[in-house]
Amino acid sequence: MKIRTIIIILLILIVLSLIMLYRRRLHTRLPEGCDRFLLVIAHPDDEVIFFRPTMSILQSEGKEVYILCLTEGDHEGLGIIRTEELYESAATFGIPRSRVEIKQYRDGRQEVWDLEAVKRDVSSFSREHDIQAIITFDDYGVTGHINHVSCYEAVRDLKGEQIGLSLMSRSVWIKGLGPLSVFVHDPSADYVLSSENVTKSWRHMKVHESQFVWYRKLLILISRYSYVNAYKTIT
Ligand SMILES: [Zn+2]
Predict the structure, then answer these.
(1) With helix as H, strand as E and coil as C, how does the chain read?
(2) How far is the CA of 128 from the centre of ligand 1 (A)?
(3) How confident is the model over 66-76, as pLDDT tens digits?
(4) 169: which of 66, 143, 152, 235 lies 20 to 30 Å off by Cα?
(5) CATH number, domain containing residue 16
């Protein structure tokens, strides 16, 4: 098959997938009766790289959204800059600074957190703001990052009234399908939130200036998580 034919087929598939994403977004289903959502993340920029479709939908649905970020993202000594970037990023989603809390657990792939302490932090933040649904990573944390997994473990072990939703990790091939990942079925997902507008991910990620290097620019374009967030209910 000629290269030109392959490119044309690919372009047709991308256009089709964007149409499907748009239609899916119009028929978004969120957990019933939930108006206050808490996003528990490990690092400033997780809210864009992994959860942007969700954040945009919650914003457009007028939900009250809170962010609890468990590290300052200080792995490279940029904690002060990155915390400011997170506040700014939250503002672009319509979330005021008062609804963002940043903890100081250690950032790094080798850092094992005190899970009991994390649980207490998530639980007290959640109770203080009367949270109804908590969104976080799943037991693989999309990338396998131990800090992401710890977020999941803390939310999983909460004994609260809230609904817990974990972002489903997928294989590296599916993660890199970009908009085409809309063709990948998520049979075990309880909720699927989609977005066809990758320029929004780009704009939100730009706020994280210290992290917006070439490979993250590429990631934003080709990552499934810029287009599709599939969730399982944490039971
Ligand atoms: Zn992260």
Answers:
(1) CCHHHHHHHHHHHHHHHHHHHHHHHHCCCCCCCCCEEEEEECCCCHHHHCCHHHHHHHHHCCCEEEEEEEECCHHHCCHHHHHHHHHHHHHHCCCCHHHEEEEEECCCCCCCCCHHHHHHHHHHHHHHCCCCEEEEECCCCCCCCHHHHHHHHHHHCCCCCCEEEEECCCCHHHHCCHHHHHHCCCCCCCEEEECCCHHHHHHHHHHCHHHCCHHHHHHHHHCHHHCEEEEEECC
(2) 25
(3) 999 999 999 88
(4) 66
(5) 3.40.50.10320
Distance 37 CA to ligand 1 centre (A): 19
Ion ligand 1 nearby residues (CB, 5 A): 42-43, 46
Residue 182: what pLDDT? 87
pLDDT of residue 75: 86
Q: What is the pLDDT of residue 17?
A: 87
Structurally, how many domains does the chain consist of? 1
Quickly tell me which residue has 């954040």 as its tokens: 55
- Give the tens place of pLDDT for each residue, 169-184: 999 999 999 999 888 8
CA 13 – ligand 1 centroid, Å: 30
